[in-house]
Specification:
This protein has eleven helices and seven strands. The chain is of the alpha/beta class.
C-alpha cells in the first residue's frame, strides 16, 4: 500500500511538471499600468488602489458617492511613487445599467489608457433570515455583487483581448465558498462570481488574460459595520469563530495573487483550507498548488466536517433559546 501511494505521488508529480509550465502565467508588472477599481471609495477597494499606486500604477476609482471618491483620491495620491501617476475619479453605479458602466470605462480609458487590471470590489452584504428578508434584498444583492462585477468586466474585455494582456479580479467572500446561516441572499451572489470566473478564464486564457477570484474573510470595512447592525445572532456567533482582517492586509494579498495570475486568492490558514477544499474544477497555475490540492483534500474535509457540526449546534442552540423565551413570554 505504501509503495502504491509513493508511486502515485511520483506519477502525478511527473505529469504536473510536464504540463504545468505551459499554463503558468508570466507575472504582470504595474509600473506605468492602468488599474481600475470599482467600489474604490472605501474598504478593500480603496486599499487595493493604494497598494497598486505604490507599485507605480495610475488608478481609476469607480463608485457612486462623489464626495467619498474625492476623499479616497487624496488618500491614494499620497502613496504615488512617481510624479506622472494620476488618480481619476468617476461616479457611476456599476449595478444598474450596462451602458452607464461602459461610458464610464470608456472615459477612464480615454484619459488613462487601456485598463491593464480591473479589480471588481463593489459589493454589499445584508444578512438575515430567509423568510424575514424582503424579496428585493435578494434581487439587489445579486445586482450589486454579481452584475456589478459582470458589467465592468464586459466593458474592458475587448480591449484586453486586442492587446493580449490583462488581469481581472472578482472580490467574492468566504461566504462565496460556504453557505452560512443568514447569508441566503448574500452567498448566492458571491458564489455566482466563481462560476463566471471559471467560464471566463477558460475563454480568455489564450489571450494572455488571467482571472483571479478573491475570498476574503470578515474585513474591517464600513460595509461590515453596516452589516453587523442587522446580523442574526446565529450569524454573529458563527462569524466569531474567525477573526476580522484589516483591508490593507487583504488588499496586499489580492494584488500579489492577481499579478501572479493565480485563480484563487485566500487569506490566512482558514482561507487556504477553504480554497483547497472547494477547488473543484478551478484552474491551477503552479506545481505546488496542484499537489497540495490533490493530497490535502481528505484531511481538510475532516476538519470542515468538524466546523459544520459546530455551526449546526450553534443554530440549534439559538433556536431552543428562542423558543424558551417565547414560551416564557406567553406565560407572563
Amino acid at each position: 500500500m505504501f509503495l502504491y501511494i509513493v508511486a502515485s505521488v511520483v506519477v502525478v508529480s511527473l505529469l504536473l511538471l510536464k504540463f504545468l509550465p505551459s499554463i503558468t502565467p508570466k507575472p504582470l508588472t504595474l509600473d506605468k499600468a492602468h488599474v481600475l477599481v470599482t467600489g474604490g471609495s472605501s474598504g478593500i477597494g480603496k486599499s487595493v488602489a493604494i497598494e497598486c499606486v505604490k507599485k507605480g500604477a495610475s488608478i481609476t476609482l469607480l463608485a457612486r458617492d462623489q464626495a467619498k471618491l474625492l476623499q479616497a483620491k487624496q488618500e491614494v495620491e499620497k502613496h504615488a511613487v512617481r510624479a506622472d501617476q494620476t488618480v481619476l475619479c468617476i461616479s457611476a453605479d456599476v449595478s444598474r445599467d450596462y451602458d452607464e458602466v461602459e461610458r464610464a470605462i470608456k472615459q477612464a480609458q480615454e484619459q488613462q489608457g487601456p485598463v491593464d487590471m480591473l479589480v471588481n470590489c463593489a459589493g454589499v452584504s445584508v444578512s438575515g433570515k430567509f423568510e424575514e428578508m424582503d424579496v428585493n434584498c435578494f434581487k439587489r444583492q445579486m445586482e450589486i455583487n454579481y452584475l456589478g462585477s459582470f458589467y465592468p468586466t464586459r466593458a474592458v474585455m475587448t480591449s484586453m483581448k486586442e492587446r493580449r494582456k490583462g488581469r481581472v479580479v472578482f472580490v467574492s467572500s468566504q461566504a462565496g465558498q460556504i453557505g452560512l446561516f443568514g447569508y441566503t441572499a448574500y452567498s448566492p451572489s458571491k458564489f455566482a462570481l466563481r462560476g463566471l470566473a471559471e467560464a471566463l478564464q477558460m475563454e480568455v486564457k489564450p489571450y494572455n488574460i488571467y482571472v483571479t477570484v478573491a475570498y476574503p474573510p470578515d474585513t474591517d470595512t464600513p460595509g461590515l459595520a453596516e452589516e453587523n447592525k442587522s446580523k442574526p445572532l446565529e450569524t454573529t456567533l458563527i462569524s466569531e469563530t474567525s477573526g476580522v482582517c484589516q483591508p490593507s492586509d487583504v488588499a496586499r494579498i489580492i494584488v500579489r495573487d492577481a499579478l501572479q495570475g493565480k485563480f484563487s486568492s485566500s487569506v490566512g490558514l482558514e482561507g487556504f483550507m477553504l480554497s483547497a477544499l472547494t477547488c473543484g474544477m478551478s484552474p491551477v497555475t503552479s506545481f505546488t498548488q496542484a499537489l497540495q490540492q490533490i493530497f490535502s483534500m481528505g484531511i481538510f474535509r475532516a476538519i470542515a466536517l468538524g466546523h459544520l457540526l459546530y455551526f449546526d449546534r450553534v443554530v440549534h442552540r439559538c433556536m431552543v433559546e428562542r423558543e424558551r423565551t417565547k414560551a416564557a413570554d406567553k406565560k407572563d
